[in-house]
Structures are given as C-alpha cells and as structure tokens.
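Blinded run. Sample ID left blank on purpose so nobody reads anything into the name before looking at the predicted structure. Input follows.
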Amino acid sequence: MFKGANIFSTSLTLVLGLNFLFSLALVLIFINFSSSLTSDNTQLISELTAIETRANEYSERLHGIESINEKSLALIEEVKDELDTLKKDILVQEGEIFQRYQNFNNSTALIDDSVLAVAELPQVSHGFDPFTPYVIGDVSGQQVSAQVVEDPPIPLAQQSVDDGIGKAPTDLNLRRVYYGTNRHKAEDAISHWAFGPDRGSELLLGFTDISIPKNRIAGTIDRPERWNFLSIPLPIKESESIEKHFVEYETKELSESEFKKEVAKAAVSEAAEKSAIIYIHGFNNTFQDAMFRAAQLGEDLKFDGLVFAFSWPARGGVNDYVTDLDSAWLAVEYLDQFLDLIAEEDDIKKVHLIVHSMGNALLSHLVQRNGTRLSKQQGKLIDQLILAAPDIDREVFREVSEHFKRHSEAVTLYASSADIALHVSEQIRGEYPRAGDVPDAGPLIIDGIDTMDVSVVESGLFGLKHSTYGDSDQVINDVIQRIRKFDQPPHKRITNVVQIEIPNVGIYYKFAPVAR
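Blinded prediction complete.
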C-alpha cells in the first residue's frame, strides 16, 4: 500500500515538475519575443524618424524652389513687358521713318512739279526766259553788271527717248525692250507694268525703256533693297535711283499695227544692226523680271540690234512650279504669233533666241506642233539658239533636238551641276535628269549641238543658282562670240574653256575655274 502511494507521489511530482518546466519555457520564450519585438520597434521608430526628417528637408527645398519659380515668373513678366514696350517704340519709329520717307517723296514731287510749272511759264514782258541765258540788271533797268547763266538741266520728266531703238538722252543709259505677253492686265492698274501672274486670252504688245546704271558689274540687275532695323524688315525699301538701279523709264502699250510700225522704224535706224535678240524667261519670273533681264542681256552683250522679250504668265513663286508648267504649255499660241510678227519685218535679217529654264518647255511645245506660223516659215528663222539651263527631260530633249536644229543655224546648250531649281524639278519627276543638269556621268551630248558645262562659273543671280547665262561675264563673252559668228570652237577662242571627249558618246566643252 505504501509502495503504491510512493509511485503515485513520484508520478505527481514528475507531472508538476514538467508543468513547471513548460511554464518556465513559455515565460522565457515570451520574454525573448518581447525583447526582440521591443528591439524591432525601436529600429522601426528610428527609421520612421529619419524618413520624417528627410521629408521635412524635401519640404523646405520644395518651398525654396517654389519661391525661386515665383521670382522667375515675375522676372519673365517684367522682360515681356519691356519687350512689348520696345516693340511699340520700334513701331512708332518705323512709322516716323515711313512718314519722313513719304514727306521726302512728296517734297521731291513738289519740286518736280514746281520745275515743270516754271518751264511752262510764258516769257515775261521784260524779256526774261527762265531757261535761256540772261543778263542781270538793276531795278532801274540800267545795266550794272552782266553774267551769262547756263541753262538749267531739263527735268527728268521732260526728257524723251530718241526714235529708233531707244537710245538714251545725254544723261541716261536706256535700253528699249519690245515685249509680247499673254499675261492678264488688271483693268484698274495704276502702274504701266500691270501684267500679273494670271493668264490672258490675247497677245498684248508694246515697248518699255529701261534705265540702266552706267557704272555696274556686268550680269547684275540692281534693284532697291528693303530696309532692316535690328534684323527686322521694315515696310519701306531703299529709294529707287536711276544712278544705282534698273528703272522702268517709260512703257507704252501698242496695237499690232502700231507695234509693226515701231519695229520697222527701229529696224531701219542707222544705229541698229539688222538683227534682233528675243528673250524667253523661265518659271519664277514676273513681267518686271523678264523686262529687266532682257535689257541687261542687250546691254551686256553689247548688242546694237533690237531686243525683244516674250513674257508668259509665270506666277513668280518657287511653290508655283506645276502651275507655271501648265501656263507655259498654254502660251504656245501667243509665242508663235509673237515670233511671226518679228519674222515679218524685212529689215531684221538675223534673229537670236535666248531661252531660259522652263521657257525651253514652252519652245519645245511650239517647234513640235504642226500648222503653226513657225512651221510654215521658209528657211531657218533663228540664227543662234541659246538654250540656258533647259528644264526638259533629257530623253524628251533628245527627241525635240531635231526640231530645234531644223529651225536654227546653230544651237548651244548651257548646263550646270549647281542648278538648284533643276534638282528640285528632278525630285518632282522621280529623279529623272533634266537636260540642263550635269550628273556624274557628264552633260547631255547631242550631235550638232554645242554643250557647255558652266558649273564652275555659277553665280546665281535669281537666288536659285539658276541664271548663269545672264550673270556670268564668262558666259556672256561666249554668247557674244557666238552671235558675232566666231568660227573657232569654244576651247580655242576662250582661254578657260576645255574640250572633253566621252568615248562612244561625243564631245562637250567645260568652263574651268579662273584664278582670282
């Protein structure tokens, strides 16, 4: 009995001991977990405190940036206000300058009117004539001293152009251009040159006298430039000056019969050669451009014959290329009529035709048509045919070339690799080369046509590097020699021209660079 009680007591003691140990273990685990949790909380609180500190720093920086932005915006507004004020001041100054310019023109016109009024005064009773030498005397009529006074110069408005080919008065250098155009003329136009870019339905005729500065560089066409202030274009241009610029001196429209009479009278003038130059312009040309260029060619070629120009309705803008191409095609009938009027003059023995750019397309349409006045001409109407930078497909040019040669004694093709306008034309047409271009393989060579590569003498007067024939004195010299019928080939009569032969293709001529 006592043995069983001992066993039970021992078992109970063991259970109680194990329970104690388990409880102790739980207490130790809890204490360890609490300690770990406390440590983690402390670290977390420390990190949160650091984040809060950084947030405060960023908040202070942001506040500083906002303050700087506010100051910058305020400064920008101040600058804008100053710029607005400056612009207003500039506009006011422009207005004052423009007003002074108008006052100056009004004063000049008033002076001219006064001079004209004096010129028209009748002679006064005591015999005084304002435009003749006179004797200075006293009020009593008794002569106390005498002095011959020279005649005052005749006002510009009273000077007239001599009959014939339009030779200049003593103090002017005038070049007369007889024109034909199918441009539409504005009914309410004030200017004589009121032929705009629109197509007309008839051939209009007349002449214009161009005043050309005596001291100028060959090939240049100087015109008034627009004034600038701080690189800002002003609404006024440099005043037109006969001493400095090409100027329209006089323009007169004529009926067909009047045109024939004027041409006939000029052709028999003693000063005139029995020959004529006809100029046909390209695209991006106004009527004024064409007249100035024709006058410049006549002047620089030292041509003593008659100068004609046919102006078709090009719109005068680089972006109007396709429209101009259509207008050139539609002008064929009027060009045919104009050439026929010139051909009818018996005293014009030779006709030289200078054609530029898209004007060549116009001419090519004409020479290929049957039933035209040109096709019925007996013999060859054209002596020297100058095709400058022709804007025609090379293969089309090959086909048309036989027609060019049929109507001309000699044909010259001027081509250039530096012609920007022709490069644009090629891009429009899928990169097919133009007759006036010079690709890497060389220029277009056709038997019976002189091909001149003028790439190195390109000067680009039209701003498109597109008028070498007119504004390079080297090319002008070549044209002069062709008109005067020099028999030698170009490389033997011009020092900087070389002959180049392409095997199995042919020969062409190239201008070499000239040492400066």
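Unblinding after everyone has recorded impressions. The longest strand covers residues 195-211.
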